[in-house]
Design brief:
The chain is an alpha/beta fold and about 240 residues long. The chain is about 40% helix and about 20% strand. It is built from 9 helices and 11 strands. A 9-stranded mixed β-sheet has the order 4-3-5-2-1-6-10-11-9, with helices on both faces. Strands 7-8 form a two-stranded antiparallel sheet. Helix 2 crosses helix 4 (about 70-95), helix 6 (about 145-155) packs parallel to helix 8 and helix 7 runs antiparallel to helix 8.
């Protein structure tokens, strides 16, 4: 049931790096970056406090490099730098839209971003600034999904909104399988038992332990973030 007031006051938006590349296989598509920035601005203008975690898969995929023989820790650190590139690009796009934005990095790089300090992040949110969390958790062997779950819990977000290319969670890839089954509601345990590709197991466990809801939705449909924030029921709810 939607209303004139936002359902959530503080959210964590999880974007994949691939979302920024669009039809390109790699890199950053400027038009998509602009579209995402305008949608984020709409949310900010409602007074909703917004943290963002972006993956780096459009630039570098640590897991793939590791599978091909690169040292896993090295591969993950390169992936963290890729997330920072995406974070800075999104910051630039948001500020072009007039949205005050701060990038907080889990890895110290003072010329590019502020260091991640939990109280500082919360203060930025309270001042209606969009906060982008870069460089994952700052540790190898953890994904940006886990970083999103960690930061969401640290800042006291009410929900994680995980953007995807499809309408929610299915039992198999709906882009490949016509009769893939859609799930409207799932428990954390169901996600873990069925090994559904919502977020990795560490992220799901962290959300389960702290009763943090996850909504998986289609970022490709314009206005979906706003619909969710206003309480409209779309996508898959994991709770």
């Amino acid at each position: 049931m939607s209303s004139s007031k936002p359902k959530y006051q503080r959210i964590l938006l999880k974007l994949s790096g691939e979302a920024l590349s669009g039809t390109q296989k790699t890199g950053i598509h400027s038009k998509i970056l602009e579209d995402i920035s305008r949608e984020i601005k709409d949310i900010r203008d409602l007074g909703v406090q917004l943290g963002i975690v972006i993956g780096g898969g459009n630039i570098f995929r640590g897991m793939e490099a590791s599978a091909k023989g690169m040292d896993r820790a090295s591969a993950d650190y390169i992936g963290m730098l890729a997330t920072t590139i995406n974070s800075l690009a999104l910051q630039h796009a948001l500020e072009k839209e007039g949205v005050h934005t701060r990038v907080l990095s889990a890895i110290w790089m003072q010329e590019l971003a502020e260091p991640y300090i939990r109280r500082r992040a919360i203060r930025h949110l309270q001042k209606n600034r969009v906060v982008i969390f870069a460089a994952g958790t700052g540790n190898p062997y953890f994904t940006t999904d886990t970083a999103a779950a960690l930061r969401a819990n640290e800042i006291g977000a009410e929900v994680i909104l995980k953007a995807t290319r499809v309408n929610g969670v299915y039992d198999k890839d709906p882009l490949k399988f016509k009769h893939a089954r859609f799930f409207k509601n799932l428990s954390y345990i169901q996600v873990l038992r069925k090994k559904l590709k919502v977020m990795d197991a560490t992220a799901i466990s962290l959300c389960m332990d702290n009763d943090l809801k996850i909504i998986v939705f289609n970022m490709g449909r314009k206005g979906n973030i706003k619909r969710l924030v206003m309480g409209q029921r779309i996508g898959t709810l994991v709770s």
